[in-house]
Amino acid sequence: MTEDLSPAERYQASRLRAAEQATALGPFREMYDFGLDPYQIEACKALEAGKGVLVAAPTGSGKTIVGEFAVHLALEQGRKCFYTTPIKALSNQKFADLVRRYGSDKVGLLTGDNSVNADAPVVVMTTEVLRNMLYAGSQALNGLGYVVMDEVHYLSDRFRGAVWEEVIIHLPESVTLVSLSATVSNAEEFGDWLDTVRGDTEVIVSEQRPVPLWQHVLAGRRMYDLFEEETDHGGRGTGRREVNPDLVRLARMENQRGYNPRDRRRGKMVREADRERERRQRSRIWTPSRPEVIDRLDAEGLLPAITFIFSRAACEAAVQQCLHAGLRLNDDDSRRLVREIVEERTASIPSEDLHVLGYYEWLEGLERGIAAHHAGMLPRFKEIVEELFVRGLVKAVFATETLALGINMPARSVVLEKLVKWNGEQHADITPGEYTQLTGRAGRRGIDVEGHAVVLWQRGMDPGALAGLAGTRTYPLRSSFRPSYNMAVNLVQQFGRHRSRELLETSFAQFQADRSVVGISRQVQRNEEGLEGYREGMTCHLGDFEEYARLRRDLKDRETELAKQGASQRRAAAAASLEKLKPGDVIHVPTGKFAGLALVLDPGLPAGRTNGHGHRGMEYHDGPRPLVLTAERQVKRLASIDFPVPVEAVERMRVPRSFNPRSPQSRRDLASALRTKAGHIVPDRHRRGRAPAADDREIARLRAELRAHPCHGCDEREDHARWAERYHRLQRDTRQLERRIEGRTNTIARTFDRIVALLTELDYLRGSEVTEHGRRLARLYGELDLLASECLRAGVWEGLNAAELAACVSALVYEARQADDAVAPKLPSGPARTALGEMVRIWGRLDALEEDFKINQAEGVGQREPDLGFAWAVYMWASGRSLDEVLREADMPAGDFVRWCKQVIDVLGQVAAAAPRENSSVAKSARKAVDEVLRGVVAYSSLG
Fold first, then answer.
1. CA-to-CA distance for 807 and 867, rounded, in angstroms?
2. Spatial CA neighbour of 877 closest among 910, 908, 916, 849
3. Whole-angstrom distance between the N-terminal and C-terminal Cα of the chain?
4. Partner of 915 for a Cys bridge, out of 498, 553, 680, 922, CB 3.0 to 4.6 A?
5. Alpha-carbon Rg of the chain, whole angstroms?
6. What is the DSSP code string of 825-875?
7. Is the dihedral of CA 450, 456, 457, 462 positive or negative?
């Protein structure tokens, strides 16, 4: 290619190469056996120029290269780099990658429950670990030059997102921040905020996938393209994105009604040949089974594939279905290699535990190239699946959506079984952002020419809606930042109350709220200009028309108020008259569909009371609802709307005990008797009394003032009045907008003020002074930080042994995946049960206090109720029981058990650090509990 350049151009290119070699980027590029993309080069150059960067790019596009360049710069400059990730699995993976590149002496790992070479110049850690280091003023921050925040879009997470903002706000100014995000639609807004709080920040957005993505729908035996061929197949090019007309026809055909012999087509019976053709077409539409899907992908050369199923149990069932169908995706050599790798990686696990963990069934699937991947699996098992998949030894993985969170497992194809998932509260459609994240796994850079996203046909599928999901490539980043009790005491301790409040107002949450206020403020400004015009329109030469208009409004409001009172009194009188009715009363229904003569069968008494005929009264909210027989033989339950005026019995008659309201003959006979008994009675016409407004002094005063006002005699009075009415409506709308502005301005700071007020009430804070109790709270991180602190303060855990304390601490971290209020959890007996009961009572007191201080859990602030569902399991485990016994008793997957145990260990460590040093056994019990829980399957579950 250089032969095509002129001598001058070759000289220029040579100078550019020499100049790049003099930078850090040149040697860095040579470390990779592939060229960097333009966006990666742009970001790296900005970093080397001393700027922070925000890189937003699709999943699998290689944005971590920019993070690795920050590591390279830190080592070259003799400074430190912290590489943060949202989950431990990602930290473990990045730790392994960096160790391979730079050596184990230069790279460390900190994930809360693991510490490897923590003093290394490059440390990989979870974001929470860095947040805790910042609040503690750790010495490890000395010499820190770069912080990489991988998957920074995690700050939208409503449970953990606040941690990302805390880190960004509190990092020293000297630290350069590298933020790596999935493609979000408001990257510029996020970049503007980073520019505000971190200084000069370059925003680099790339929406180009490194491997083109083809979108398909698999229906029956046929794989349909989602878009017509002239589209850009999921890229961001200029191609037209028309939905495949074959898919549209398929959906239309499936939605047609089945054949009905009475249907007519063009005036004749539908021909048998037409029906047969329709039957053949419909027979091609079905949702393929999981083994059929894998078999089809294998035949098309589209493996390896990840099939996303939004259920752990379904992922395991899918593997079993493939095994029972006889699928084998590995040859004999691959099977032997799989067994060698698995046996090597699991050598430290005792054989009795392997049996409990379903090892042999799991291994059979791996040998055939098929596996599940979800949070319920043992971490070691998940890591083995990931390793085998990357090496091409597992070719079909059935996974939940947690696999999409940045773990390096690219595939040739991604399959989505359904476009609906359980979000913890209800089954909801997946969002465009979730669809993009899931399908982003398809297409391995440097291996595949193209990636494939396959959605399985489901009954009622709308191809247009699917195209909308696939075509909406981005989603907005929304802050979930909320102050917490721990955050409040740490901020006040470091910066004082006033400065802390100012810092919180720099959060992305407040930045977004303030930006939303800008548009409202502009509307207020336009409204004020309109008000000025309306004021001119209602100007009257005789006097102050604004004052006159106010008198008219006051008069109208008073008349409306009295009319409502009158209507309310009439309804009350009508309801009182209905309550006096008895079975056998003959009444005249004054209005409605069933107006006229009626016999009361049941007065509609409150639930629980019965009349002599055994009719149970209905529960009512709007007054009694009598059951009546009309003169036209209808039995109906009437409502208060049928009685706008009071009703009285005009006659009485006996209702036979044998009367059956469902029998036409019974209704006919009783209605005939009703007409004979009372058909001649003419109902009294209800006369309304004198209107309340006629005697109201306030109305008389307002009318007199109106007549006496100078503007009352104006010839253009009604024209002025119309302008005044417009003025009033616009003024009311403007005040509502101003209230919205007030509600959104300083929202985070106001929440902080309420938290500080509650902490002051509990003696954690005294002005800007943090008390001894506050310093203890500053060492307790977690959702139930204040509850943990109050338990330490009240001595609830004093005297507990290690297993009992572990049971109590589990209530601070555990949350059942699905609430089950019907079954009370099994609890340890003795002191542990007493302490757990006391924890719940303390929570109740805190909950009432939060209500007094208007701290709202629905807004993500406050203490949820402790969940006792894991107490018995961790108590048994810490008491030395076997894994088999604990898992059977807990009815919990091994992966969940390990994850909750590790969270218990994390909080036990915090409790040990925060517990009183004198006259207290809690710290000693907590340290012992850590040792008792960190054994067996929990200890050997790899680094994560």
1. 11
2. 908
3. 49
4. 922
5. 37
6. PP---THHHHHHHHHHHHHHHHHHHHHHTT--GGGT-S-PPPP-TTHHHHH
7. negative
CA distances from 4 to 10, 11, 12, 13, 52 (A): 9, 13, 14, 13, 38
pLDDT, one tens digit per residue, over 595-651 is 889 999 988 866 544 444 444 344 445 678 899 999 888 898 888 888 888 888 889
Cα 378–Cα 383–Cα 387 angle in degrees, nearest 5: 150
Confidence of residue 501 (pLDDT cuts 50, 70, 90): confident
Distance from C-alpha of 153 to C-alpha of 214, rounded to nearest angstrom: 26
96 CA to centre of own chain: 31
CA dihedral (183, 188, 190, 194) positive or negative: positive
Q: Report yes or no: 790 and 842 within 8 Å, Cβ to Cβ.
A: yes
Residues 196-240 pLDDT 10s: 888 889 999 888 877 888 989 888 888 888 887 644 444 444 445
- Cα-Cα-Cα-Cα dihedral sign, residues 844, 849, 854, 860: negative
265: enclosing H helix or E strand:
strand 264-265
Query: Angle at the Cα of 461 (from 243 to 184), degrees rounded to 5?
Result: 65
The Cα-based distances of 279 to 221, 261, 282 in angstroms read 16, 15, 5
Picking from 675, 677, 683, the residue whose alpha carbon sits closest to that of residue 631 is 675
Residues whose CB falls within 8 Å of the CB of residue 424, separated by 6 or more in sequence, listed in order = none
What pTM was estimated for this model as a whole? 0.70
Q: Do residues 187 and 205 make contact, with C-beta atoms less than 8 angstroms apart?
A: yes
Query: Both tokens of residue 10?
Result: 């070759």
Structure tokens at 212: 């083109």
Q: What is the pLDDT of residues 680-721, one digit of tens each?
A: 888 776 666 666 666 778 888 888 888 888 888 888 888 888
